[in-house]
User: Fold this.
Amino acid sequence: MKNPPILCLGVNHRTAPVEVRERLACDLPQLLSVGAPVGEMALISTCNRLEIYACSSASPAAVQDELTAMLSAATGVEREELSSHLYLRTGWDAVSHLLRVSTGLDSLVLGEPQILGQVTDAFMQATEAGVLGHCLTHLFRAAIRAGKRARNETAISANPASISSVALTLAQQHAGDLRQQRVLVIGAGEMGRLALKSLSHRGAGCVEVVNRTFAKAQSAAANFGACAFPLESLAERLAQADVVIAATGAPQPLLTAELVADALSQRPERPLLLVDLAVPRDIEPAVGELPGVRLFDVDDLRGTLDDALSAREGEVPQVEAIIAEEVASLQNSYREMSVRPLIVDLRRKAENIRQREMERTLRNLGDIDDATLRHIQKLSQVLVNQLLHEPTLYLKEQAVNGENAGVELAREMFGLG
Assistant:
């Protein structure tokens, strides 16, 4: 089957360092605020990737140019700088890529489960924004279905190896047994809760969580046996911590070099290890230059994955088989979509004929009761549906089999132009 008019333009952890990715952080409303939709559109934005999906009849080069301009305008990153980090995928390559993303095969941590929720969120946001049509709706539904199948039918996500768990593995390597450390988690969103869950599984004894919304910190702390503090207590809690996991959605760094230096001055004999999971970053890079500090960001997590990944790698062929099945199913759906305009035209013409003949019949019958009218209406509708049922199935089968002769013949036979 020929390539569908689908395009993916993006950056990820392989093509751009965290300092570039954090500057590109944006959402779909921001993107749409600087330009009209390029056909159908959807945006996946996570700490490790930003990808724009589009379905448009325009040339890939034209769509790429327009999307790059929109991304530059929305984020303030110059187009020249963008071009060195962006990748472009088109047609079936773009389709397969999204399915690899949703199943976790393209993640920093192989098989990480959070990406499926993020793909689903992207689908819902684009739907709510009114920028999805049949093309991307079919694509995202296939991607979500593939992601669910990968988790239900394989062990690609069976062993804990989320970014949070990898961060804690790294922290334990450098700070020692977390059961003997005071751990501070900044942020009670999805990533912060995952860090708290991982800490609970590792038996960390003294865990605190700080969050801008104190009630949210209390809720997260209660679920995982931690202590909750408001954001106003950050400086005080930082001075007590041995390990800090930062994972908020703040647009600016919460931990400045000045703030961390002040905390260190209150406990000069104790080192401080910080892991920044946020994009944009929660911790100023200059913090890593302070004496007694070890600072890691999301890019530093590569190469620190635990043994669970080797088990996950054995599941990759099964996941790829699922992707191949879903791509084949999607190809059939797109082929059926190609005859939809013909089927719509055919049914519209049949309905016009039905209504015209109904009006003529009712004029000839004169006054009839409502029950008789409903019976006549129902009869005419059933006749049209029954007559068009087989031709509709035939046209869809022709499309799925890649045969277009029947489509052209049907237009001629029914005078549809």
Summary: The beta strands are 6-12, 40-45, 49-55, 87-90, 182-186, 206-211, 227-230, 243-246, 272-276, 293-297. The chain has 16 helices and ten strands.
